[in-house]
Amino acid sequence: MRWFHRFGSLPYFYRVSGPLAWWFAVPGLLMAGYGIFAGLALVPPDYQQGDAFRIIYIHVPSAWLSLFGYTAMAVAGFVTLVWRLKLAEIFIVAAAPVGASFTFLALVTGSIWGKPMWGTWWVWDARLTSELILLFLYLGVLALHSAIESPRTAARACALLSLVGVINVPIIHYSVDWWNTLHQGSTVNLLGHSHMETNMLVPLLLGALGFTFIFGWLTLWGMRVQLLWRERRSRWVGRILEADDRHVTHRS
Amino acid sequence: MLGLFWAVLRRDLLLAFRQRGVLVHHLMFFLLVVALFPLGTAADRSMLVAVSPALIWMAVLLAALLSLQRLFRPDYEDGTLEQYLLSPEPLALIALAKVTAYWLSSGLVFVIASPLLILLLGVPPQAVGVMMASLALGTPTLGLIGAIGTALTLSLPRAGLLLSLLIFPLYVPILIFGAGAMRAAISGLPYAGPLDLLGALLALGVIGAPWAIAAALRISLE
Predict the structure, then answer these.
(1) How far apart, in whole angstroms, are the C-alpha atoms of residue A47 and residue A42?
(2) Which of A70, A90, B159, B168 could form a disulfide with B153 if both were Cys (CB 3.0 to 4.6 A apart)?
(3) Is there a domain that residue A168 lies in?
(4) Which residue, among A70, A148, A158, would best test binding to B if mutated, counting the most B CBs under 10 Å from its CB?
(5) Can you tell me the ipTM of this complex?
(6) What percent of chain B has a predicted confidence (pLDDT) above 90?
(7) Does A176 lie at the interface with B, CB-CB under 8 angstroms?
């Protein structure tokens, strides 16, 4: 339990998270880079979709992270409300814009893929619709956070909202599924070609893992910025800023 | 426990019915949204019937959004809410009583008034019962979910737009099942499934939402 309390201390977290970010950044960039490179250059074209399918090497990791990010925010929300851990609060605030960006990316790449494949930018398909509503859920959290001035109240409000949201995500997905199957008999299924060759699948999984590390890296940096801003009046932040100042003047 | 529930419910209902104007405003808003819609289209009867489920439910959602802003605001402004928070009584129960009173003075009005819309939109008579049932099952859940959003935005003076951003995505399942039941009834398909699901959502809301509302009120008044 000792490390838990130590990690909960904000100056300690700030000190450790700088080097820790590299452990997310380097493997993340390597794996995601390999995934994208292999997806674009090494993997053979799909026998039905030709080269257009290569966009899944960005699309699938983004879609995965949109769900992963929201779930992680809800877990952090639970921790915030039950144990009042400050780091969890900061995590929600830092993860929300990253998660929203990946959700947006998943929608945009899906739309770009849909144009040549389905002949239209947008279909009211169950999966697409739930992803769009997930984006709205993210935007709700961001809007709530920017509307409330006190950072602690804002973070706790976002914690509760993401918790309520995560209970609703499966219900929304299920209801949209039901709505769509009633609406138009056969749905376009993104996973219609469920069998994927191993040489296609491995770069995809590596890429997804790499993007997850990048998600962690960006969120960690976001947390550091949040932390400095929130604790800007505390002594330990003052000391860090002073040290930085001295460093800069020394160099120049 | 039950005494507390009744006391809060009675107080809120009394306050609501002392201002009869507000009740009439809800009703007029609901009717006006529905009545104005055909003016923006060619008044083609079959088209109106086809869009009527979506239209009625959109009117209900908008009315809920506007009326929900008043749910905790008067109590917040005159300090009653702080007394609720300080009292040893369970806040979740008070919240449930307040939402119940809110529904009786707004959602129930829509349920009772909705048959009027068959005249305006030409909804076939066999769908009227299903429409009323879907509204009766769906609008309380709108109130329960909306109350979470209202409680979270309580300390913000002009939260109307923000409130819509928070709660409309959460209203998606109710909209789908509510309008879906009506659509099924209009085209003569089985409608029990979506109605059952609306009931299930209501049960889930009654159990879960009061706790979330109470937590949100505590965050807002911290």
Answers:
(1) 15
(2) B159
(3) yes
(4) A148
(5) 0.88
(6) 50
(7) yes
